[in-house]
Structure formats: C-alpha cells, structure tokens
Amino acid sequence: MIVKLDTQKALVLFSGGQDSTTCLAWALERFEAVETVGFDYGQRHAVELEARPRVLAALRAGFPQWTAKLGQDHVLPLGVLKAIGGSALTDDMKIEMGEHGLPTSFVPGRNVLFLTAAAALAYRRGIAVLVGGMCETDYSGYPDCRNETIKTLEAALDLAMEAPFRIETPLMWLDKAETWALAEKLGGQALVDLIVEETVTCYHGERATRHDWGYGCGVCPACELRAKGYANYVSQ
Fold first, then answer.
1. How much helix, strand and coil, in percent to the nearest 5, is found in the chain?
2. What was the pLDDT predicted at 67?
C-alpha cells in the first residue's frame, strides 16, 4: 500500500551554506510547512553546522512572512562518510584535481546518502517533498549533483518506500550569479545580506577573512564559485 505523504510540506537539505539557504527561502515561498535537515558526516568544515542555527534564527526573526512556516530542524549523523575517508572534505588532504578527473573534495555517495536519509526522515514526518541545492550548471563536476542522478534516485526512493516522494532542485539549471539573483527575488536585499554575513560555503571553514561576497579562504573551489557568481551578480 502506498503511504500518503503531504505534498504541502517540504524537507529542505540545509547545510548552512549559500545554496541551501536560497533553497530554504524558495521552499518557504511555496509550501505551507517547511522543516530542515543537516548532516554531520565528519566534515572538516564543521563550522557550517554552527552556521545553521544562526541562519534559521535570522530567518525567523527577519522574515515574518516565513516565521510560521519554518518548522523543526533536524541533524542526522552520517559518520560512515568520514570512516570511508579519502576526500579533502573529511581528511587532511589538499584540494586539487584527483586521478579520476574529479576534485579531491568529491565525497563519493554523499548526496545519495543525504537524500536517502532525508527521505527516511520525511517518511516518518509525513512529508512528500525533498528540496536540495544540487546543481549541474555551475559546479565542481560532482556526478551526484547531476539532474539524471537526482531523478533516478527519486524513482528508487519511491520504489524502496512505496511513498510518492518528489525531489525539487531549484538551482539545478542556475549559475551562481543567478542563484544570488534568486535570493534577492525571494527575500530582497535582506536575504542577500544574511547570506553574505552568516552562511558558510568555504571548504576550509574560514571565518576570519571577510570579502564582499562573505567569509572564506577565497581560493578553494567553493569560494571561487561563490566569488565569481557574486561579481557577475552585482555587475548585472
């Protein structure tokens, strides 16, 4: 028997970064109730976990149109990714191009595990829609960010749980400049300012150096994408 889930409720995969914060605002504009889930997988940039409650508190306080919709936050442990290791995001390694044509920041299976764990949580919470910040337009080449991967996983989750899940990826076809513009469209300059000041994108978790686009080392792939996107956004 197919389980009935509420299509007016969404669970947002929320890391505390720019993309997931934009996706959270996108979901708050569209659904009656929104919950969030983060993952502690032994990431070196665990400062992003510290950013999550700051961003959520700022959204509740500064955007009254969303306050009542923003529900419970969850953090799930996925230490198996740290145990497997071999990534610059979990081990003390340099971020560079790896032997398989992918950056060493690639964590094999990360988004598959994230979405599977999120779906299991959504099942228990009666939530039909999962929202993630995966993007294949302006990204580091991770294969688990591709639209084909997400759609295939959506079908697999439906079969595995006999539940009509829908995975929404509002950033899939946007570049980083368009992601900044979407944030402005959703929450005005206030949301852009919140993203600049509070979100963490940097793979090194750098919070000491302030740039016009936010805090970060400025040289890791995540910072480079964010900086380039912001420059293009403000020049438009």
1. 45, 15, 35
2. 97
